[in-house]
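Exam revision sheet. Question 4 asks you to relate a sequence to its structure. Input first:
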Amino acid sequence: MTDPLHRGGLPRSALLSCWLDACLRGLVPPDEVSDAVRGADPQHLLLLAGAAAPLIEAPGRLRALGATSARLALPAPGDPTGLAGPTGFNTAAVDAGEAVLLAGAGLGLVPRVDARTVLWEVLPAEPAPLLDPAEAGTSLRRTLLEVTDRLVALDVAAWQPEIPDLLLNLRHRDDVPLPPGIHPGRVEAVERAVLCLEIVALALADDGGAVSSYEMGQRRAALTDLDRAARRALVAACSDSLGGS
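Answer key, structure tokens:
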């Protein structure tokens, strides 16, 4: 599984989905896509038909194969968010925890880390229907409130010390590295989803003070719900990301 939280807290596939989508629409050049997605990684390569190519060549090669837009998938075992098949691609994407789907090409990209190189393997895939960003964003806000109430009701230490700081300093966080042209509402949705994913990662680092198996199970179930809602919101915001609010 690749590192789930990459540059600016975004999964690599979220970065590639947004920047590749902008490039396919002619809004940013391929070199900006490559630089934005690579971040601090030494190298990213496109693995197409067994041959590796620099990521800067990806937009041109994928456009030639029919790609018209990019969509994000952030699946987890039992929750194939953003996936529509076939089985081989779904399995690879779930193993990685992320993928990019290419509308118009019947292809998808799954990242895997080989030594210090990120390889984006091109596989046959079909994009799932687009999620409604407004609906997914509303669901995430509601889920965050519900999960907080559930954890308080358990009467355990729900949050790590760092988490209240994350919530209080939301306005002072670094901007997420998204391409130009994305609707401000989408940017806000991405920032909120990334924050919630960070909260889940921190909260799952220990048992939060739960002293019984019941409390631990209920706490994990609540955090799993928040993780699912955050992934759906991020998929909605980063898929066809220039399509509107």
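Marking note for examiners. The chain has a mean pLDDT of 87.
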